[in-house]
Specification:
The protein is mainly α. It has helices at 2-22, 36-43, 49-58, 64-75, 111-114, 126-130, 135-156, and strands at residues 81-82, 94-99, 102-107. Strand 2 (94-99) and strand 3 (102-107) form a beta hairpin. The chain starts with a helix and ends with a helix.
Amino acid sequence: MCRLQFHFNEYIFKLEQAEYASEGVPVDLIEFKDNQPTLDLLEAKAVGVFAMVDEEISVPKGSDEGFLKKVITKHEKHPNFAKPKPKDLNANLVFVIVHYAGAVPYNVTNFLEKNKDSLHEVSFTSIPFFFCVPFVPLFWCCCLLFPLMTNLDDEND
């Protein structure tokens, strides 16, 4: 998702404005804050927030509190990372990411459980068997062909 946001910003804001200018089309320049530092904070290999979540999930005794402690220790000096004020609600369970649109608090209660990737739990050896079940291909054929058949009926009327 973050890369999609970056691509959107890059294309819409920068490239389109440059194209308009080159064609002599008057357009007000849109200023936007470059979100790359936040993207780096989230996506950096091994040290980004996403990688730290994955690591804490894979640790046998990983915990939400352990993740929070590690992410605060690693990123507390990053300009796009903040700890809540002690008086804030659930301050001991929250970290804050400063996005282009503002500061967004993330509560770590059940954070690891919510972010587990269910694909790791699926046995890929069972996937070919899944398609051997007669109902499944029939289901997909019906889903794909029924709208086409319906359109044909409409054309013949």
